[in-house]
Amino acid sequence: MNVWIEKQKYLIDFTLASLARRKAKNLGLLLVYSLIVFLLASVMLFTHALRQAANELLAGAPEVILQRMVAGRHDLIPPGYLERIGRLRGVQEKQGRLWGYYYDPVVKANYTFMVADDRLLAPGTLVVGAGLARTRGVAPGNLISFRAYSGKLFTFSIADILPAKSELVSADLVLLGEADFRAFFDIPPGHYTDITLRVANPLEVRNVAGKLAQQFPDSRPILREEILRTYESIFSWREGIVLALATLAVLAFAILAWEKASGLSADERREIGILKAIGWETGDVLRMKLWEGALLSLSAFLLGYLAAYVHVFHFAASLLAPVLKGWAVLYPRFELSPVIDGLQVTTLFFFTVFPYAAATLVPIWRVAITDPDAVMRG
Amino acid sequence: MPATRPSHLALCLLCCGGTLFVASFADATRLRQQRAGATHEMQALVRQLQLTDLCLFTEARYTRHPSQADLHSAFQEHPLALEHFPSGSLLLPPAILSSRHERLDREAEVPD
Amino acid sequence: MIELRQIHKAFNAGRENEFRALNGIDLQLPAQRVTAFRGPSGSGKTTLLSIIGCLARPTSGRVRLHERDISGLPERFLTEIRRRTFGFVFQQFNLISGLSATENVMLPAYPLGGDRHALRARAEHLLAGLRLAHRRTTRVELLSGGEQQRVAIARALINEPPVIIADEPTANLDTALAREFMAIIEQLADAGRTVLLSSHDPLLVDSSLVDRVIDMRDGRIVAAAAPAGDGG
Questions:
Q1: Which residues of A11-39 are buried (b: 16+ CB within 10 A; e: fewer)?
Q2: C107 touches A at CB < 8 Å
Q3: Looking at residue C177, which CATH number applies to its domain?
Q4: C231: pLDDT confidence band, cut at 50, 70 and 90?
Q5: Which tens digits make up the pLDDT trace of A158-194?
Q6: CATH of the domain at A101
Q7: Is A303 in Cβ contact with B17 (below 8 Å)?
Q8: Distance linking the first and last C-alpha atoms of chain B
Q9: How far apart are CA B33 and CA B51, in angstroms?
Q10: What is the mean pLDDT of residues C72-99?
């Protein structure tokens, strides 16, 4: 065993010495390789953590949301609907929600206006999300004016700002009282944006939705599990897009690596011949080259992965955010709770480390099995 | 001279890398605990306000609340909005649409 | 010790450019002698040395080492035998550039996995014996021709093989260096090693150092002459 370890150390010594001879080239290769692992790992870690966050946070969303559709579009719930639902088995609570969007031409951003009943906001006051406060540059106590869709100018005072830690769900929120909301958007009493239902038993959710759809043919029930699935697929395809683009980089690198690995220079061929002539077995040469591939690809994997981890979870994925956030003006600042998918990391490991090690081996194999007498003939 | 032996150096560095790799999982657990407060706060907010979506893409209403929007009407809110179908990421909206909208934006009276 | 029987070697066999390097060599090489193969280039000296040193296999014929037929052994065993039995000094020296002299000398022992301190000490001892102690950490491509050859000799000796094979050892050396090389070979022979040389350098072949000269031409042994009255 000791002899085996000692032998591997000798082989590593040699392979490092031969790597050191082409320092710039090999360091460049390591850098590009690490960069690719970094890119792939960043995307994987980031989207996986986002997916997890969506799952974790939206677990508290209402089980069923009833939307009314008019000509295929989302419309207000007319008066009487909430009462008409009546008593449904399994429904603990039903409530009309009031919320809507407002486009603020000052900063060219969209806000979400929402009525928060239980906050007991005094008329004329607002609570805004931290992202909005940052983008618009407002603080508690400031006055803020919005021109309503009716053309009238409304001025509110800011009572409070939602905690910055909660930006992932609240960055663009504007919370206001019901009376203010109805006045601002000109929504008559009795109308709601949609209706939420709380269902305690998960097995009942589909039944409830089915009954609602039957009772209100003009409406569309949205289930919480659909919401979660929506997020699952959104992040999956966004991850997919980035990975698809990254594939080009990976392919380019594959060509580079293949060139480097398979295009054995005359010097390297000669060296392998010498090693064989002075008593190295074909297996020793292969092991030495395997170490070369393993050291290079392992270092690249570790460097790339560690950089990606720090980037995503300590620097809030600052390099990736532009790709994932689109063209929004108002973007939340948030720190993701790190969740690492072991399977994903393992997949990344296998797809980055093994192909390179294999690519270095194949051509060497062909050279190494030839007779070593070539060196004699110079 | 074992200290200068390249294989020892390389194996040491690899071990360090491996340790850091394992440490990243430990660090993830630590950060999770540290950020649990924020998570709870957001969960409370979601429950209290009956929120349905993450505030990630505010560029348009069907991207702000992907789970609530009718998914098939592109460019409803902002002509520069990123469509959330794959084609939307690759194709820009027609220039005539954005230029017209931007002019409208400029001409619109700023309320404050 | 080494016995060759009906050795044939053909390159590119069966093709248009087939080249028959050796045509039926029968030879017995006793241990502890300095034997020189002499002949013009293309006469098959180098090919014969490759086959003796287990670097190549004959196309046909038998090679026996210590009464053991080794021509049919698989590569692993052949390598093992080569490592244990033969040390090579190539015409082009064939040092690995970028490595220091000591590292080059240590290379043949790497696959054995011995203790590194002991190995390094042995390598440095060998280099010191060849008056290269001051150059041991120098990269080999910075050494002069004579120094490179001495590094190559030290490398050939690191695994303490009983047989040293040197292919055209004086071809790249001036007279003074060639004499120095011969002195080293003499020491090795005196220490009980078998030395096989290929050369057409009269300075070397005709010297008293060589016990037996084997003349070769067109892949055949022409005559086995014994210079200076020494029997062969």
A1: bbbbbbbbbeebeeebeebbebbbbbbbb
A2: yes
A3: 3.40.50.300
A4: very low
A5: 999 999 999 989 999 999 999 999 999 999 999 999 9
A6: 2.40.40.20
A7: yes
A8: 75
A9: 24
A10: 88
Q: Is A123 left (phi over 0), alpha (psi -120 to 50) or beta?
A: beta
Q: Which residues are C86's β-sheet partners?
A: C163
Q: Tell whether A148 and A203 lie within a shared domain.
A: yes
Q: How many domains does chain C have?
A: 1
Angle, nearest 10°, between helix axes A342-368 and A224-262? 20
How far apart are alpha carbons A12 and C129 in whole angstroms? 29
Among the partner-chain residues A169, A295, A303, the one whose CB lies closest to the CB of B45 is A169
Q: Is residue A23 within 8 angstroms of chain C, CB to CB?
A: no
Closest by alpha carbon to A11, among C154, C138, C109? C109
Within 10 angstroms of residue B91's Cβ, the number of other Cβ atoms is 10
Q: What is the token pair recorded at A251?
A: 């392919």
Q: Domain containing C220: what range?
A: 2-229
Nearest to A3 among C90, C91, C113 (CB): C113
Q: Is A375 on the interface with C (CB under 8 A)?
A: yes
Domain assignment of residue A253, given as a range: 2-57+230-377
What is the value of pTM for the model shown? 0.82
Question: Of A201, A223, A245, which marks where a domain is finished?
Answer: A223
Domain identity same for A193 and A125: yes
Answer whether A368 touches C (CB < 8 Å).
no
Q: Which of B5, B54, B61 sits opposite A54 (nearest CB)?
A: B54
Q: What is the pLDDT of residues A298-312, one digit of tens each?
A: 999 999 999 999 999
Residue C179 corresponds to which tokens in the numbers above? 């004499």
Q: Residues of A with CB below 8 A from C56's CB?
A: 371-373, 376
Q: How far is CA B62 from CA A121, B66, B71, in A?
A: 28, 5, 7
